[in-house]
Design brief:
- With 175 residues, this protein is of the alpha+beta class.
- The chain has one domain: Aminopeptidase, CATH 3.40.630.30.
- Helices cover 32% and strands 35% of the residues.
- The chain is built from 5 helices and 7 strands; from the N terminus they run E-H-H-H-E-E-E-H-E-H-E-E.
- A 7-stranded mixed beta sheet has the order 1-2-3-4-5-7-6, with helices on both faces.
- Helix 1 crosses helix 3.
- The longest helix has 17 residues.
């Protein structure tokens, strides 16, 4: 049976489940994400991070969401770098799904729901994302949601001990 995926704005009470997922999945995410300080994997560290994200949301620069499957928090989807000016109207998209919930379609559905937020609530025209060149599952998620690759950012991010290239993606949402 397929579980129901939804997204909502992050809340302070999300700190504990996020910290639990991030600590458990530390090794699995190592190839795809930058190293973090030890407190990133604690409830307190996530609570501080959520406070910063919500301050950014109040300022209009970020829409920080969580991904839920049948009501249980299983990941995050974040619209960042929001530029709402009429001549720009763009943002970047990032997401992760906990290991226990991967390969069940949640990432694809969460990205689709985030695109609705970006278009309908934020009124943006363009969304960008980037993936590690080797992150084929994430590339499939983006492609299935109408993103197309448009370039490579060389030595763009320091991951797992070395500088890595990133594949850049875009999706035009319309006017």
């Amino acid at each position: 049976m397929r579980s129901h995926t939804r997204i909502r704005l992050i809340e302070p009470t999300d700190a504990s489940p996020i910290a639990a997922h991030r600590e458990r999945d530390l090794e699995a995410f190592r190839p795809w994400e930058p190293a973090q300080q030890a407190d990133f994997y604690t409830r307190q560290g996530q609570a501080q991070r959520i406070d910063r994200l919500l301050a950014g949301h109040r300022a209009g620069s970020v829409w920080p969401g969580v991904v839920l499957a049948d009501g249980e928090l299983i990941g995050q989807v974040t619209v960042g770098g929001i530029l709402p000016q009429p001549h720009l109207r763009r943002a970047s998209l990032g997401y992760w799904i906990a290991g226990v919930a991967q390969n069940q379609g949640h990432a694809g559905r969460a990205v689709g729901l985030a695109l609705q937020v970006i278009r309908e609530e934020l009124g943006l025209h363009r969304v960008e994302a980037s993936t590690n060149l080797e992150n084929l599952p994430s590339q499939r998620v983006l492609r299935r949601n109408g993103f197309t690759p448009y370039g490579v950012a060389h030595s763009a991010i320091f991951l797992d001990g070395s500088w890595r290239d990133g594949l850049l993606w875009e999706r035009i949402l319309g006017d």
